[in-house]
Design brief:
It comes from Sinocyclocheilus rhinocerous. It is found in: Secreted, Extracellular space. This is Plasminogen activator. This protein is mainly beta. It is about 5% helix and about 40% strand. The protein contains one helix and 15 strands. It has a six-stranded antiparallel beta barrel. Strands 2-3-4-7-6-5 form a six-stranded antiparallel β-barrel. β8 and β9 form a beta hairpin. About 45% of the residues are buried. The structure holds 4-(aminomethyl)benzoic acid. The site of 4-(aminomethyl)benzoic acid (4AZ) has 11 residues, from β14. The site of 4-(aminomethyl)benzoic acid has 11 residues, from β14.
């Protein structure tokens, strides 16, 4: 996160860190952010998983990327799905769903540090300039930004913003997602609940004036998410 403030995981208890096993180093390295949406299910960005067949592990309940914490819960990933129409050139449909490995059908246990975000109703529309929050381990921070149903223009720095994307930013160009935050949450308060409206996807740099960040538009994928969860 660019701008933003250092934050405790209890402010964003759905924030996940996705790590990948590096055989040479014999250790797991941070890969991307993710969002806990149910005990055994994590959403993230498809572009994080372009190299296939990697051993993945998810860390929940941790405030700092590299600092173990007594509240953390760690899970291997049983399987993951990249959206069938994901386009790695335009980042259209930049969404992936991960299933955590469990023994008895229960994975994450709820605690003040580990709690799922709510998914929106498929037709939920928020007014432009609704205040929302993003978080990430890019710099262990969160920040407040404004939701924009449509970008000021259909293109951002020459790249197409498709109807499967939503923009959000801070007009001053201070607070923004940045490298390492991809896959993490854009949550907005709706009827008192923090609702997942976006997944950090791409942008033109970070924190440039009048240049919002681009997020995967989660409302377009609620059917895709629930059908995968039901079938698996
Ligand atoms: C990235 O590289 C990235 N300012 C994510 C979001 C934004 C820029 C870069 C948006 O993961």
């Amino acid at each position: 996160i660019r701008g933003g403030q250092v934050s405790d995981i209890r402010e964003q208890p759905w924030q996940a860190a996705i790590t990948v096993y590096l055989p040479r180093a014999k250790s797991y390295n941070f890969l991307c952010g993710g969002v806990l949406i149910d005990s055994c299910w994590i959403l993230s960005a498809a572009h994080c998983f372009q190299e296939r067949c990697k051993r993945l592990r998810v860390v929940l309940g941790r405030t700092f990327r590299l600092q173990n914490s007594s509240s953390e819960q760690i899970f291997d990933v049983e399987k993951y799905w990249i959206h069938e129409q994901y386009d790695d050139e335009t980042y259209d449909n930049d969404i992936a769903l991960l299933k955590l490995k469990s023994e008895f059908g229960i994975c994450a246990l709820h605690s003040p540090e580990v709690l799922p975000a709510c998914l929106p109703e498929p037709n939920l529309a928020l007014p432009d300039w609704t205040e929302c929050e993003i978080s990430g381990y890019g710099k262990e921070e969160e920040c407040k930004i404004h939701y924009q149903t449509i970008c000021q223009c259909k293109k951002l720095s020459g790249r197409l913003v498709t109807p499967n994307m939503v923009c959000a930013g801070d007009t001053r160009g201070l607070d923004d997602a940045c490298k390492g935050d991809s896959g993490g949450p854009l949550v907005c308060k709706k009827n008192g609940r923090m609702t997942l409206m976006g997944l950090i996807s791409w942008g033109d740099g970070c924190g440039k004036k009048d240049t919002p960040g681009v997020y995967t538009r989660v409302t377009n994928y609620t059917n895709w998410i629930s059908s995968k969860m039901r079938a698996n």
